[in-house]
Design brief:
alpha+beta; Immunoglobulin-like; 8 strands; elongated; Anti-sigma K factor RskA C-terminal domain-containing protein; transmembrane; membrane; sigma factor antagonist activity
Length: 271
């Protein structure tokens, strides 16, 4: 539990303001027993209330008297002032102070209550903003993903329809039967393009590499690629090619193919 977030929530102020239910009050008491930081914060808030009340205890009575005498007629003021100076009235006069203190405490509680209310409203507004931002972010991500899929489909179709391209489908090996990809080898430029359709997530520190297979030669590096990207252009491969294969290699690629890590392979159709 985040103690600071709990303290900042305003629930301790509501505790002293008397705005919590019995169950909520008991919960705060339990939290204070369990967490010394919360108990210290409750004590500090209580001391603030006591200090505020004490600061008003020595206030001049003239303000109270002015308030009272302003509500009666002039001819009654003299009799009223004489009456409150009599010994029997002194006790009643002193009793004004506790009421003043109580009023100050009530005002403080009301102030705390309003602060808590607006704090909660502000938190709710922040939550709404975060929720809307998250929804907008998800929508933007979906739009971007859809656009990428459309771009991917458009590129694939363009390569399939290009008469200058030789299309080679690479099917999964025994190591990864569900894997497959499509390679397009341009007859004029000798450029190699790969369309990654289904390859498993490579282990950390590894990536996939494409190889061109020529008769009587070791596999020729045709380039490393990102299995999450769209159609990618790799290296230029010249000469007679019989097949293409994909292996899993250490990140950055290798000049020599790890044949036992072949994930997919495909052969050119004989003309």
């Amino acid at each position: 539990m985040n103690i600071q977030e709990y303290i900042a929530s305003g629930i301790l102020e509501s505790y002293w303001a008397g705005e919590l239910s019995d169950e909520e009050m008991q919960e705060v008491d339990a939290m204070a027993v369990r967490y010394p930081e919360i108990a210290a914060e409750l004590d500090e808030l209580r001391n603030v209330l006591i200090s505020l009340a004490n600061s008003q205890a020595g206030a001049e009575d003239s303000a109270v008297l002015d308030l009272v005498t302003s509500t009666i007629r002039d001819e009654e003021k003299e009799a009223f002032l004489r009456a409150i100076d009599e010994p029997e009235t002194q006790i009643k006069k002193i009793r004004v102070i506790p009421r003043w203190i109580t009023a100050a405490a009530v005002l403080l509680f009301l102030s705390i209550a309003f602060n808590v209310y607006f704090f909660l409203r502000m938190q709710s507004a922040k939550d709404d903003v975060r929720r809307i931002a998250a929804e907008n972010s998800k929508m933007a991500y979906k739009i971007e993903s859809t656009q990428q899929e459309l771009d991917y489909a458009e590129l694939r179709v363009a390569h399939f329809l290009n008469d200058d391209n030789i299309h080679v489908r690479l099917d999964g090996s025994e190591l990864s039967p569900k894997s497959f990809a499509n390679v397009f080898w341009n007859k004029n430029t000798n450029a190699v393009f790969i369309s990654v359709d289904n390859l498993p997530e490579p282990p950390k520190g590894h990536q996939y590499q494409l190889w061109a297979i020529k008769p009587g030669q070791a596999p020729i590096d045709a380039g490393i690629f990102d299995h999450n990207q769209l159609v990618q252009e790799l290296k230029v491969i010249k000469g007679e090619v019989q097949a293409f294969a994909i292996t899993l290699e250490e990140e950055g690629g290798t000049p020599v193919a790890t044949v036992d890590q072949t994930y997919a392979r495909g052969f050119l159709k004989k003309s």
